[in-house]
Amino acid sequence: MPDPRAAVSFEGISPVIVTVEHDASIVFDRTKNGGATQVGLAVMLDSDAQVSLVADGEIVFGKLLSVGPDGYCSVQIAGGMTLPGGSSATLTAGTRIEGDLSGSDEGYIQTESDAAPPVGRGTIIDSGTATAVQVIL
User: Fold this and answer.
1) Is the dihedral of CA 33, 37, 42, 44 positive or negative?
2) Which end of the chain, N or C, is surrounded by fewer C-beta atoms within 10 Å?
3) Residue 50 belongs to what H/E stretch?
4) Do the Cβ atoms of 98 and 58 come closer than 8 Å?
């Protein structure tokens, strides 16, 4: 039996999950795991109780967990989670995160830039795998 202490993971630590509406950047597809190809990506609060995929330099609201056919989705807004880094993202453990792009696709993260005003949130815990950055929000 493998030793569970041999693998570091922060996934699932104290999760806080909310249900909100989503915009047209998130598309329900019953054939996809979780109801959309965008499940697992970072989202931002777009308007009152509505999310969209996080854009470059924007505040990360949380991780998209599932999408329903009714226009609502589940988003993890706190706790330990894994989010994908952008294609040319700087990802540094101990820094806060903000939105980034992967090519022209939204929903990815990077280390907070020095731009004012600061928009970073949470902390990168492990950036060893750029496609699966461990974060605590």
Assistant:
1) negative
2) N
3) strand 50-53
4) yes
CA-CA distances (angstroms) from residue 107 to 41, 88, 93? 5, 14, 19
Integer Cα distance of 94 and 97 in angstroms: 10
Q: CA–CA separation, 51 vs 28, rounded Å?
A: 14
Both structure tokens of 11: 């996934």
Q: Nearest-5° angle of CA 73, CA 120, CA 12?
A: 50
Residue written as token pair 């202490």:
5
Per-residue pLDDT of the chain (137 residues; tens, 9 = 90+): 666 667 777 787 889 999 999 999 999 999 999 999 999 999 999 888 899 999 999 999 999 999 999 999 999 999 999 999 998 889 999 999 999 999 899 999 999 988 767 788 999 999 999 999 999 99
d(CA 93, CA 116): 21
